Predict the structure.
Amino acid sequence: MEFSEIASLFKCNKCGSCTSVCPLYQNTVNEGMAARGKLALLEAVADGRLEAGEAVRAKLDDCLLCGACATNCPSFVPTTDLFLEARAGLAKDLGLPLPIRLLLRALAMPGALAAGTPGLHLFHKLGIPQLANGPLGDKLPPTLRAMLRSVPPAPLRSYRSRVKRAESNGSGARGTVGYFAGCFMNYGYADAAMATREMLGRAGFSVEAPAVVCCGVPHRAYGDLETARSLARKNVEALEKYDHVVSDCASCGAMLKEYRHLLKDDPAYAARAETLSARTADIAEFLVKQDFPKPEFHTPLRVTYHDPCHLVRGQGVKSQPREILKAIPGVEYVEMKGADVCCGAAGSFCVTHPELSEGVGGDKADSILETKADVVVSGCPSCLTQLKAMLAAKGSTVKVMHPMELLAESYRTRK
Ligand code: SF4
Ligand code: SF4
């Protein structure tokens, strides 16, 4: 296994600051969970003292890729970049396990996701995922419980099936937006995606629903860089004609902004990817920058906010979602303890590491409950699914919403 910036691996001075912010270390007090432990392993691999095999991969997989260690490292060790590079090296040398290969292949095929959505919808209608949070939940094997909890609401009709591909919304007086409805938003949270579309229209932009594919974030996380690049090229082609590109999924938005690095060595796409990444914004970042029209109707709710890792650390978007929530008349905003600590979802981590995920997610649910909020808001569909499951497991009825759902509702509600 080789590292492009081997020197940065050896910059770690073993100070341990990363242990104090690592949600997995905090839950387990296990050195292998924190960046310091993982970097020690990678140093041993780089020195030839340890074989880069399945045991090393298992340790690297014990990670939410939340980025808290990188942000808080006094030596500026690019921990998560190193972990991703090591995962890619291992995927190349060892291949990926069959279930992961099948998952990544399905995500790269929009037709497969579209075919599965009615089934997920029916699953929810029958109340099967909810079983994981009832008295039966604790008796289920952790992986099965986690799989049930990870099922998004999945309305019958996806976002893109509700809007015609090139049908514009809004006057377009302020330009065009290619709205990137990622897999989770398009199929799992289509109502929230419709709210995003509505808000972009209200702000004066013409919105289209281009035929994009998966952003590639799961492929990159598992080290399948070849597929991640192939998906990135397709998305560059689908989105480059728009004045702005907007995402309402923290992970998709962070990945689109990452295309400039992912495709930097591709002569046909490097400049185009650079332009696309520069044009991409998260919906909250975009609306605040564009001075969105403020709602007038009263929405009397106590609201708290959870920072998705890929938004707060991945994109540096922290104040904008809070600004939006505070602009809604009647909203009493209350900050939760550790709002920027990972919720434990981390894509498929919640299924591959159910107990670790539940430990971190349970702490997050406690922080939400302490605020006595009516609603918790977050701009990431993976976080929304985890927060719903973790709150339901505690018998809570706190509502979980995407910020665009609450904002769009506040234009319509007269109370
Ligand atoms: S905070 Fe940075 S330098 Fe300190 S142990 Fe962690 S990775 Fe190493
Ligand atoms: S990325 Fe998050 S979970 Fe992984 S080692 Fe760093 S702080 Fe811990």
User: Anything to note?
Assistant: The chain has 23 helices and eight strands. The domain at 301-412 is CATH 3.40.50.1860 (Rossmann fold). Residues 12-18, 35-36, 39, 69, 73, 75, 77, 79 surround iron/sulfur cluster (ligand 1) (CB under 6 Å). The CA atoms of residues 196 and 384 lie 15 Å apart.
